[in-house]
Amino acid sequence: MRTSKLLLTVAHRLAILAYIVVALFPLFWLLKVSVTPNDLLYSEGVRMWPSRATFEHYTFVIAHSAFPTFFKNSLIVAGSTAIAVTILASLAGYALSRFNFRAKYWIVALMLITQMFPLVMLVAPIFKMLSPLGLTNSLTGLVIVYTAFNVPFATFLMQSFFDGIPKDLEEAAMIDGATQFIAFRQIILPLTLPGIAATLGFVFTAAWSELLFALMLISGNDAATFPVGLLTFVSKFSVDFGQMMAAGILALIPACLFFLLIQRYLVQGLTAGAVKG
Amino acid sequence: MASIDIQSIRKSFGTFPVLHGVDLTIRDGEFIVLVGPSGCGKSTLLRMIAGLEGVTSGDIRIDGKRVNDLAPKDRDIAMVFQSYALYPHMSVADNMSYSLRLRRTAKEKIASAVGNAASKLGLDPLLERRPRALSGGQRQRVAMGRAIVRQPKAFLFDEPLSNLDARLREQMRAEIKKLHADLRATSIYVTHDQIEAMTLADRIVAMHAGVVQQVGTPLDLYDRPANLFVAGFIGSPGMNFFEGLYVVSGEKAELRLANGTVLPVGKRAGIESGSVATLGIRPEHVTLNDQGALEADVDLIEPTGFGIIMHVTLHDGPLKIFTLDRSMLNPGPKVRVDLPLERLHLFGSDGNRVD
Is the Cβ of A182 closer than 8 Å to some Cβ of chain B? Predict the structure, then answer.
């Protein structure tokens, strides 16, 4: 009995370990290459860690490349998209969760349909639409496109969080003297913070790492986001792996910071059901 | 405080009707209990008074003013929910003062109102806590406190004690009664628990399938149930029923059951000889008597501590008897019983009471 339980625990931990190794190995490799000096990159063969580590790629990327611009652009685009999507999705998710209106079924169906097409199909039409509006090669255009593509999923995500909050609460608030909107803002929204954090995080990372639209809608370095910028390290004749990886590591930082910031609410979200409403 | 007037209220969800024309006048300061089985429409009626459900047709007036189209916040009523519906992210004090804060009441007034309500309900030491740190009974008290700080025109209670254990329910029941005696606030209380209905109500409204069955004082409903539904719903253990033919012979009348048994019943004016009728008698009114007219086989004895519930068979039909006589714990295989004439209820074939 006890040994079988022990075995089970060990097997469990091993399985998790295997998963973590597989998931994190690319990140480790990113780090390893980013600190490998150029002259050792091809000369040392496959090693887990270079015989000499260096930060020269980092200093180069920060001081001498357009990377800071890419970084700033990405931050603006991802941040604005996350905020815009979360506001829209909260309102839409609340409506879907609480109200019965005539076209509800069709709106949900339409939102699902938008999720069915491969993005590649839509690149050309969207370019055609944005171009006369002067929204190509602009961060605003990117924010609009990302917002449009992320709102449906985020809405369903928020709806499920609103569904988890008892209707009694806003009814109590409305009897206490609140309008439906005040009840939403003062009672329901504070209770959905975990959902809002999850949505913010999800949309932020999605917008942060999006390549296809950024590549098609942006030309030139001024408005390029970080995933597009990474491609500048690839030239016709060589790939600057060290700098590319260093830029990659730097690009991970905001995403990590962001999740550190909201993880308190994410954990709350996981345990929210434990307390009876 | 205010009176509430309900006139031919109907409610349908889509094409499905749940309330079929309810009329009810609630006097200022009265404690009304809506009672009935699940799905009878009692909660829907309460929610319509609160403004949480729309009215399909009919009028609701609070204090003489038609409120059909008013938002809940403009009706000046307070409601206690079954789930308590406390705001989880606010302290007890903030939960109680929320309605006053929404109305931009002065801070000193809020403090004194919350203080008063808290001391009335024994919540003083809990004011800074969050709802999750409270027991079920304490949460219930906070929900009550939230309702009384505002001194609304009426209190609505939607099965407020259903989530509590039996002991706590008994205690809170008494507290609600005391509170009502204290505040004399017009109250409408929904429950499926007939003990709560009997103990709390000035008047009970018994409902079934969206129709009001009887309105009256608790003892009215117990002593003179208007129909078979009320007779069966009020009282525990439930009333015994026998169906048969009502036959008059001279000055006497009797009920002839299908199995041949003849039960004497008093002669009634409201029913013709030869028609189908149902006889009802409460278990506590069946008398055990060695010289009793009827013989019954004992099936089962259920001691409740206070008394004994006996399940017996009377000429192929089941009969429940409630007695305080402890010697009936071992009654032997057969007992003799009487069904006292003055305790019999008779209902016509339409289910309505006949006198």
Answer: yes
Chains A & B: contacts with CB separation below 8 Å: 59
Complex ipTM: 0.85
CATH match for B4-233 among 3.40.50.300, 1.20.120.450, 3.30.450.20, 3.40.47.10: 3.40.50.300
Which of A171, A174, A187 is closest, CB to CB, to B87? A187
| Closest CA–CA distance from residue B86 to any residue of chain A (Å) | 7
The C-alpha atoms of residue B64 and residue A198 are separated, in whole angstroms, by 50
CA distance B210 to chain A (A): 23
| Residue of chain A whose Cα is closest to the Cα of B150 | A176
| B123-157 tens-digit pLDDT | 999 999 999 889 888 999 999 999 999 889 999 99
Residue from the list B78, B79, B88 with its beta carbon closest to the beta carbon of A191: B88
In the numeric block, the tokens 């097409």 are attached to A117
For each of chain A's 277 residues, which pLDDT tens digit applies? 678 899 999 999 999 999 999 999 999 999 998 888 888 877 877 778 888 888 888 888 888 888 888 889 999 999 999 999 999 999 999 999 999 888 899 999 999 888 888 888 888 888 999 889 988 888 899 999 999 999 999 999 899 889 988 899 989 999 999 999 999 999 999 888 888 888 888 899 889 888 888 888 888 778 888 888 888 777 767 778 888 888 888 888 888 887 787 777 766 655 544 444 3
Angle between helices B166-183 and B136-148 (to 10 degrees): 20
A268 touches chain B (CB under 8 A): no
Between CA B171 and CA B166 the distance in angstroms is 9
Beta carbons of A166 and B52 less than 8 Å apart: no
Give the residue on B whose Cα is nearest the Cα of A168.
B85
Domain boundaries, chain A: 1-54, 65-274
pLDDT tens digit string along B289-326?
889 889 999 999 999 999 999 999 988 889 999 999 99
Q: How far is A118 from chain B (nearest CA, A)?
A: 40
Cβ pair B99:A176 closer than 8 A: yes
Q: Is the CB of B87 less than 8 angstroms away from the CB of A277?
A: no
Q: Name the CATH superfamily for A65-274.
A: MetI-like (1.10.3720.10)
Give contacts of B88 with chain A, Cβ < 8 Å: 191, 275, 277
A177/B103 touch (CB, cutoff 8 Å), yes or no: yes
Among A174, A187, A277, the residue with its CB nearest the CB of B73 is A174
Tokens 């007939």: give the residue. Answer: B194
- CATH 3.40.50.300 residue ranges of chain B are 4-233
Select from B83, B102, B132 the Cβ nearest to the Cβ of A168.
B83
pTM of the model: 0.81
